[in-house]
Amino acid sequence: QVHLVESGGGLVQPGGSLKLSCEVSGFNLDDYAIAWFRQAPGKAREGVSCISPSDGAAHYAYSVKGRFIASRDNAKNTVYLQMSSLKPEDTAVYYCTTGDFCTFYSDDYSDWGQGTQVTVFS
Length: 122
What we know:
By secondary structure, this protein is an all-beta fold. The protein has strands at residues 3-7, 10-12, 18-25, 33-39, 46-51, 58-60, 68-73, 78-83, 92-99, 116-120.
């Protein structure tokens, strides 16, 4: 059974940094794509990043490119999202999820964690 648990969210001022973690179980990280999505109130779930299972390359939404870094630790079955230069627009619940390959379409994924709240506010 696939299980994902996000952690690391919190309140941070604009320009600050946070590092999110996603602990996964039920599968090996290197066999599947691992993606981060976020959802703000009243908005659709939005793709943030994805790590491809084939070569481990990370892909990012334009809105976070250059500010966020996704990585994985296969031995620990953990995925990370290092977020820097945070903006109020980054405020959302952040979720991790898995799939056969990377897409930025939320309907392509079916297994989600509970999410972790990130609030960027001064």
